[in-house]
Amino acid sequence: MLNRYPLWKYLMVIIVIAIGFLYAAPNLYGEDPALQVSASRGAEVQLKTLDQVKAILDEAAIPVKHAAFEHDQILVRFTNTEDQLKARDLVASKLGDNFVTALNLAPSTPAWLEAIGANPLKLGLDLRGGVHFLMEVDMAEALVKQQDQMVQDFRTELRTQKIRYSGVRRAGDRVEILFRDEADQEKAIAHLRRLNADLTFNSEQKGNDFLILASLSEAKIKEVKKYALEQNITIIRNRVNELGVAEPLVQQQGAERIVVELPGIQDTARAKEILGATATLEFHMVDETADPQAAADGRVPPSSKVYTDRNGRPVVLQKRIILTGDHIVGAQSGFDEYSRPQVNIKLDGQGGNKMANFTKDNVGKGMATVFIEYKPVGEPGPDGKRKFRKQEEVINVATIQSRLGSQFRITGIDNANEAHNLALLLRAGALIAPIQIVEERTIGPSLGQQNIDSGLQAMGYGMLAIVIFMALYYRKFGLVANLALVVNVVLIIGLMSMIPGATMTLPGIAGIVLTMGMAVDANVLIFERIREELRAGRGVQQAINLGYEKAFGTIADSNITTLITCIILFAVGTGAIKGFALTLAIGILASMFTAITGTRAIVNLAWGGKRLDKLPI
């Protein structure tokens, strides 16, 4: 019989619509202004911290909607932003610098919806508010690190070839290698040129010393800078993921800058702490022949350097680096057999081989773990740039008990929270070069709410105009199209909420408005085709069937070409363009379902298979 769906197809339509409404439902519950308290390095959030926060707020008579200890941090919900802001200032001043007190927006989704993975739609920076950073990579430090690596590599290569040298050091933008005689100089320069085609080598004589001057070629400098920028972008993305920010934007701007946008974050303290941290590890051998006290007084062997441990005591370590944090691919915090905090390290294949080859020959000797950070000092100079101070601290000195491989642990960490932060930074990767924030903007939730209100207003006016037109022009069939239009919008919101990486932005709202017009356009094509068939003398049931069949090809062609455009926009676009492309693509797929399958199901139920002389169209 014409215009009758089998039962399974009606059930499919009902199930799809029900799932769409279910996953769109969390957006009705909104979000609570919240205060998030987490620990900075050297502190730990505990249940007694929650009691302390509650006492602070009770004393100030600030009403609290709900307060809980979740995932090693405290989340306090409020009924309005005024209480939230008052609480932030008060709690931050009372708890001190050991804790990070940040503003947040916590979803009010019921637990039963969260249990099935239904969460509110993620809003972009322009709708939810958040922070915008423009960061600049310190390329000078990236080149210095490359030159330091050259020093290490040259020493290793010359020792391997048993070529005698007096010393290897970095001098300005070059690396100098000193020799006692010319024969060793000539052998060394021939060997090094063969292994380092991307470096420039020159030889000269100063008094009784024969020198090789090695410098980076222009091509190598460009390569180092490009690598530093790309790696920093990758590492910042990893760190943002560790922060748990929904759909951030991290992208390159120019040759040395990175744009970072974090929707939903109003307090920049935690974000700046994690994003800007250049924490990494280095492993050095302990110089057991040196006297730490004599070294502290300035009598240090040429091949060694004085460091300090956490108690300020001097530790003499060999300059040679056994391994750097660049080889770390995994880091998890935990506890040892004595319930002391530790970080379990996992190395890549190359790092594991280096560690194994070194430790097998040095069992019984001391190896130190050096924690390195670059911290900004002083005010920005005339060029807007700040200087960085390299802070090095020995966090662990251990005796090598046996040959180590790609997995081992480091101890000597003060508390579990510090171990967690260290593991986070190491897992996300060490920045190739320090970065500094040259521009910082905070977009308040009130401005974001204005954008949402404006977007919803535009969507509402557009839908109202379409609904009135369709109802007047196509009568009852127009009402069917209007119902499908409402379902289409709900399906878009539901699908956007289900997709982990989907974010609604202001251009995304424009994409929904455009989709509404396209969805109605499909129904207009179908309804006009039905009218043509009726005018041609076809029966009612045949006109409905031919109207949907003949219009399908035109609708499919137009939507597929638009979908291809969306894919291209999403592939090559950034930020707002991606948001528009994604929303429009989802809208096209939803409109194909609602405008063709959905309306056909309603038309079949209302008029299909019945003896009718005319249609209300």
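The above is record 1. Record 2 follows with the same two-line structure.
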Amino acid sequence: MSDTPADPMVGRLIDGRYQVRSRIARGGMATVYLATDLRLERRVAIKIMHGHLADDNTFKARFVQEARSAARLAHPNVVNVYDQGQDADMAYLVMEYLPGITLRDLLKDYGRLTSEQTMDILEAVLSGLAAAHKAGIVHRDLKPENVLLADDGRIKIGDFGLARAVNNNTATGQALLGTIAYLSPELVTRGIADARSDIYALGIMTYEMLTGEQPYVGEAPMQIAYQHANDTVPMPSVRVPTIPHELDELVLWATARDPEQRPRDARVMLDQLLDLDTLVRPAPAASGLASTMVMPGGLTTAVAEADTQILGAAPLIPAGGVNDTPAEAPANSTVLTENARKRKHRGYLLFALVLILAALAGGTGWYFGSGPGSDVPVPSLTSSSPENATSQLTALGLEVALGTEFSGTIPAGLVSSTDPDSGTRVDKGSTVTLLVSQGPQPITLPVLAGLSSDAAAAAVTDLSAGIGATDSIFDDTVESGLVISASRESDGGDVSQGGDYFQGMNVNLVVSLGPVPDVSGETVDDATAILSDKGLLATSGEELYSDSVDAGDVIRAAPVNEGPVRVGDTYSLTISRGPEPVVIPDVVGLPWNEGKQALTDLGFKLSYNLGADAIAALLNVATTDPVAGTAVEKGSTITLKPTNPFG
């Protein structure tokens, strides 16, 4: 019996839809479970954020945003994201379930991979990553643990979106060490990342697949980070001499310390990999032999260093192993003799081909006449001055033309892009156009105040600008859902009535939630419920006397905090104590009419013998009931008696 405690999540129904079956894996940010989608009757992988992260509102907001970005990536080499939500205190992400292993598991089992296996995996990963880069998504956490190898042969990238949503403080110990092994120099030194940072991580992964080792090791994460920032990744062939030099060059290109010297994105690197494919992969043998052969231990140096080895019709070592019957395999000397004869024949053909190419190219060798040496990759010149960019292209044997374009990211006067794009291989002597930034393209925003939030967003995005922050507040004068005001994100300038701006920059909107309901005269419970329906909180405030509001009801409600009122704000309720009591003044001894007037002026009603009123008018007030000094409600009745006229 296992000592592992039962996971409380197993068996739980999440959001009324996903039945958790078993735990698959646990990481530094989340735990992944196998679950059944009861609605669609399919198996899924559900990733549940750890509690200390799910409680972070900033993390949850980024998690939702990145989950939506990952869900847009419909690509066969990217793990599909089906759903995202919140169940009680748990933030979760529902993904495609792929039974199989990770690239890390494969490397643990086999140490290193062949060049062909490496290129197959690299092609699949680059294809998925190219789709992400095209959509503007940077993975930021590429490593063998996030490359999934399904049982049916599919290769997919996982964990899109999670790397962005976690700050540097969330990874510690081995998790941090594993991530640092693939961090680009700019992430180590400046904490910034773009598509080229993913390329660097992929270059490190390629090195590891080819050699079975990471290029940089150390006892502490900082040691590894220092090497990334200051050292150059060695060629894989230094560890494994049989690795083709084309793959050496690919790794060095992808892991250049300067991001400008790397492929611009995964598509550029994928195109180059496909170009290398025919150079690196051996042509299939006519005999139909397997691609992997066991070489004998006694090969001569000349044979071992030959460019191409051709094996006979049977393996040098039979499939059953070295203990099989010797008669079943030809002697090594016979095989080597046959190999030498074939190499000699092929050598004559190659020599003849070189002579022909040399004659056609005026003495230029095959490699520089029609092979890869005849063209050069366009370097990345983004943010370079036109003069510096021109010098670099001229040194590569390329012609230069100048053009202009608007750019929201590159300052005016610097190179914003090239035509052809950086990384594209072109013939020497070709013309490369340097497109110099003119800064962002000016636009004129229309009147935004009074539009619905959707209409305002459409008006802005149609001009190739963006919507930044949207603030929703209560407003007594603007209908719910309409824009109250708009401002430029760059400088806060008001553009509610339209104005000048630039493409690629964001506009902030303030949208009305309508007026706050008037709860005057309502009971405290009713007032609290009315405000709650609008997302507002209510708290009991001071109590005041009121002639118009019954005791216990709300006189008025006012926000606790100054400034615009937003959902979640608190209102203080002023509660009525009813009419204020009035103290009966002392009118005893006053002339009858004067005492009556004093009491009626205070709102009291009077009771007296009307028949004697005319006579009493000549007398004084003898008594009041209630007596003077008694506090009674305003409007109460006071009984008056005059003095006895007869003494």
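The chain has 18 helices and 27 strands.
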